Amino acid sequence: MHPVPNWQPLRVLCRQGNMNPILKKLTAAVISAISILVAASFVVLHHSEKSIELVGNGVGEVDTSGMQISFLACNPSPVPVVLDGVGAVLGGSTGPYGELDLHASSLGPFSAKPLGGRMEFSDIDTMNSFVGWSLGQLPNPDFTATLKVRERLFGIIPYSYEKNYTMAEFSGILFGNGTWSCKEKGNYGDTRQQLELEWARMSVAGLLYSENGTLGNSTLGGTRP
């Protein structure tokens, strides 16, 4: 009788041969995921040292509760970002003064772009005080602006942060005295002139509200009755 061949070792080798490609793919996927996480962490850490910079870029319509305002935003890092939200809470120990809300946009590396928006105040007296504080016409107040930024690095990686500013620091942003790394320059000179004009108008003796709660032709920059 001829001996019966033992096929068991061959079956084991075949099974091992089938598993090896799967294990290789899983290992490659894990290594790729770890590499992406490490690279993303490095990008976030590097970008955190170069947050978005702002400078005043002009004031638009002013009414009894706030003003249209524009800032030039600079991305000083080599990482393109999508700005999902840029705003600030203005306040002090006595409570909130108002809020700044700027429109979403995207910024390429080492580039700047205007961000329009609105600065809203709790009432006209608070807005008047803010303009006076920013221009140095009134004593330094108990004031803090908490800037809140939500962005996506490379349009994908979510990243957010907050920064607090005193009145002097926030005025520096408005009037071009803050940190600025981009070649483009904002119209911060116009911002100062426009706020000085509004301050003069709001400070005119006998400035009164009309019956419908508006001022003049519904804007402080309009014609007085």
Protein model, in words:
The protein has 225 residues and is an alpha+beta fold. The chain has helices spanning 8-48, 124-135, 167-174, 188-202, and strands at 53-62, 66-75, 81-92, 95-102, 105-107, 111-121, 144-153, 157-165. It has a domain at 53-202: Sandwich (Immunoglobulin-like), CATH 2.60.40. The chain is 34% helix and 32% strand. A hairpin with a 2-residue loop joins strand 3 (81-92) and strand 4. Helix 2 (124-135) packs across helix 4 (188-202).
Present the secondary structure layout.
Blueprint: H1 8-48, E1 53-62, E2 66-75, E3 81-92, E4 95-102, E5 105-107, E6 111-121, H2 124-135, E7 144-153, E8 157-165, H3 167-174, H4 188-202
Antiparallel strand pairs: 1-2, 2-6, 3-4, 3-5, 3-7, 4-6, 7-8
Helix pairs in contact: 2-4
Q: Which architecture of the domain at 53-202 does the CATH hierarchy give at level 2?
A: Sandwich
Low-confidence stretches: 37-43, 209-225
Radius of gyration: 29 Å
CATH topology of the domain at 53-202: Immunoglobulin-like
Name the overall outline: elongated
Number of helices: 4
Fraction in helix: 25-40%
Summarize the main sheet. Answer: 8 strands, antiparallel
CATH C-level category of the domain at 53-202: Mainly Beta
End-to-end distance, in Å? 123 Å
| β-strand number | 8
> Which class best fits the helix and strand makeup?
alpha+beta
Residue-averaged pLDDT, rounded? Answer: 79
Strand content: 25-35%
Q: What series of H and E elements makes up the topology?
A: HEEEEEEHEEHH
